[in-house]
Design brief:
single chain, 89 residues, 69% helix
Length: 89
């Protein structure tokens, strides 16, 4: 039995499994960001520049993690802009 031949014969299957898992993660990220953006809209906090659907499309077009990171940096990180009106100090 040739071990290298049997190992490489399963690589296409593993690639399909990896792609399916990655697609599932991207869909979960899209659903989470759209849900969060809609909740922000309902509580009058809003999203930056565009609505929930566009943020979902941004995540889809950037492959998931880059768009989700951008959404988080803009809306939740300490680097985001906070207006002086909402600052209680």
């Amino acid at each position: 039995m040739n071990l290298s031949n049997s190992l490489f014969s399963s690589l296409p299957f593993l690639a399909y499994v990896f792609m399916a898992l990655y697609a599932l993660v991207v869909v979960i990220l899209i659903a989470a960001v759209i849900n969060d953006a809609q909740n922000r809209k309902l509580t009058n906090r809003g999203t930056f520049l565009v609505g929930p659907f566009v943020w979902g499309m941004i995540i889809l077009l950037t492959g998931g993690f880059t768009g989700a990171l951008a959404y988080w940096l803009i809306h939740y990180s300490s680097m985001r802009y906070v207006s002086s009106k909402s600052d209680p100090a």
